[in-house]
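Dear colleagues,

For the upcoming journal club I promised to circulate an example of a predicted protein-ligand complex. I picked one with KG4 because it came up in last month's discussion. The inputs are reproduced below in full, followed by the predicted structure.
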Amino acid sequence: MILAVETSCDETSVAVVREGAILSNVVSSQVALHAEYGGVVPELAAREHLRNFPSVARTALAEARISADELDAVAATQGPGLPTALLVGFKAAQAAAYALRKPFVGINHHEAHLYSPWIGHFDAFVPNVSLIVSGGHTILALVKSELKHQVLGSTVDDAAGECFDKAGKLLGLVYPAGPEIDRLAEQGDPNSFDFPRPLIADPDDDFSFSGLKTSVRYFLRDNPHLLNEPQKIRDVCAGIQAAIVDVLVTKTIRAARRTAVNCVTASGGVTCNRALRRQLENACRKNGFTLRLAERSLCTDNAGMIGILAERKLLAGNSPTPLDVEIEPGWQIS
Ligand code: KG4
Ligand code: ZN
């Protein structure tokens, strides 16, 4: 029975997991708090984590119908993330492990996303190419066996989710704009406006999205009247989304073909995007790949994925993390 904590950004989350199952996964989102600033304000996030953590933790234990003394281990996101936000959950989890005299496991947030498509299905694990696509990063990894992965490429500037959010801000949409662009694009024509697809023809596995964001800025500067026409806004959203999704799907499928795996997985907040899910499904069907997408509720940040990865690591014989280690805000997987 593992208690897991995630506070790397603007979600306060605590989960209880046991034998591969998530017994509770409570997520308290701060999205509304940060919306008025157009992005996450680190100090506000930390203060809010402090305020929310006790009740989120109590609810997670209550929903799992266990008491703290039934726990066998405690896990928390160690990095990457906003330092002040990470500190709150990580130190609370270390303190709990110390008080309960139980092992502690520090988890890499991206690695937890990477394995989230397998939650509930680890018995079916096969080598795969994995796309991690969130607000903080865009990564393509080759996962050769469980807990053995190699990063093939990542974004050299903005993450795909960041591009959704920044393009949405230029369109006057509320933060985070990804879900809103997804909704508006469903009623828009992706062919009305053509946006660049950076690095799509590049043979390597890196991404770049800041140029696309800049082209949206210049496009709206030169066509400000479009912002007064609701259907045009939907068409622009569909055009931006099509560009982002095209790049993600093309590069993921190319990497899967090159590395000769039979399976593709995707995880992270942007994996909620309907066009991305549809296009990955079509492309995988056409290429004969099995596709495994993280469940929608496990795509955005949550402690369930942190607890499941901690359990897989302990079961694989990995040593617990010493209690005197610190957060690692810049921790990248390699
Ligand atoms: O994984 P996540 O919750 O946090 C990070 O680790 O970054 O991802 C959040 C990101 C945000 O940029 C948000 O706009 C994006 O995921 N996102 C979406 C959708 N839902 C969330 N982007 C596009 N379409 C969506 N439906
Ligand atoms: Zn994340």
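Two points we might discuss: The beta strands are 2-6, 11-18, 21-29, 73-79, 104-108, 128-133, 138-145, 148-154, 263-267, 290-293. Residues 126-293 form a domain with the Nucleotidyltransferase; domain 5 fold (CATH 3.30.420.40).

See you all on Thursday,
B. R.
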